Structures are given as structure tokens and as C-alpha cells.
Amino acid sequence: MTRNIAILSGFFLLALLGGLYAAIRFFAPDDQFAQCRASVIAGGPGEIGGPFTLISETGETVTEKDIIDKPSLVYFGYTFCPDVCPIDAARNAEAVALLEERGTMVKPVFITVDPKRDTAEVLAEFTDYMHPRMVGLTGSEDQVGAAVKTYRAYFKRHKPAEGAEDFYLVDHSTQTYLMFPDLGFVEFFNRGDTAEKIADRIQCFVEAS
């Protein structure tokens, strides 16, 4: 009797899983990047990214169409960051260099969350040091805030000490976003991802696009 119940339970579980798989296949559109993805986005990839207007490190007003004209790695940080941002930006630059050796061109993009201190000139010095093709973007408080919001990113400035108004830290999210022209957001990478791992996954997305 117990054996029969176990067998019936097994059949029921298989039927349930099969029905769930069929429902997912029926209601969800085919994902050309399914074999490349390692993350799940609540609401789908379309919930991240969108229009923005910012100032480039050369002082020009640019939009997302000007910047994301090829596969791009987008990171939100600030140049006065004491540790996290330089490490992440350098890792992203290394991933881009690895891909370039394979013949795949990806643009590294650094958007500041600290426009008060990160002028175009400051960003240019920072990005030129990180990678010759890295693009730095700043803007007004409202422009930067809008860009952060459209990427569902986060930042919060700490209140500076009295008399030291130019010395403060900024908390911020640390994901790196992979963006494609026309397609928009396709994947994000976390701090624990190595340059090699990022390069391999980006290569998968590029080949599947």
C-alpha cells in the first residue's frame, strides 16, 4: 500500500512539473539568451534601463542612444569611492580587454552618483586611467537621479562633517549592467563575478544576439 502511494505521488509530481513547464513555455516568450542567463529579474529584463540624458566626460550632452551604440557594461559609482568603485571599474575594464582580444568590442561606461564632485574633467581622468575606451557620465542632480531610477539602482550620500563639506561617502548599488543597442538590458553582474566570468558570459550573449 505504501509503495503504491509512493508511485502515485511520483506520477502526480511529474505531472505537476510537466504542467508547470508547459505553462511557462506557453505564457513566456522564447528567450534567445536563455542559455546565457545566470540571473532572474522580477518583472523581466524590460524593467531595467531606459532613456537618460547626461553629460559626457568631454562636456557633451548625450542620451542612451549616443552611449549604448554597441554592447556596453554600465556601472554606477563615484571617483572619490575609497575601495569598491575602483576595484569594480578595473575588473570591468579587464573583462572588456579580454573580450577585445577575442575580437568582441564592448564599451565600458561609468555613471557617477556624485555629480557634485565628479565633474566631466574629474571623470575623464578616472576613466582614462581605467581603460582608454571607458566613457564617464555625469550631469545635474536630477539627471543622475533619473538615470539611477531607470536602472533600478540605488545611492545615498552620507552627511559630511561640519567644516568638511567636500568629504563624504556615498552608499550605492554595485551591479554592472550589460546593455545592447535596440534590445536594452540583458543581464547584470555582481561584485563576486570575475573578469574572466564576465567576459565569458558576455561572449555568450553577443554570439546569441
From TrEMBL:
Pfam families: SCO1-SenC. One of its GO terms (molecular function) is metal ion binding. Cu cation binds at residues 81, 85, 172. Disulfide bonds join 81-85. Keywords: Copper, Disulfide bond, Metal-binding. Belongs to the SCO1/2 family. This is SCO1/SenC.
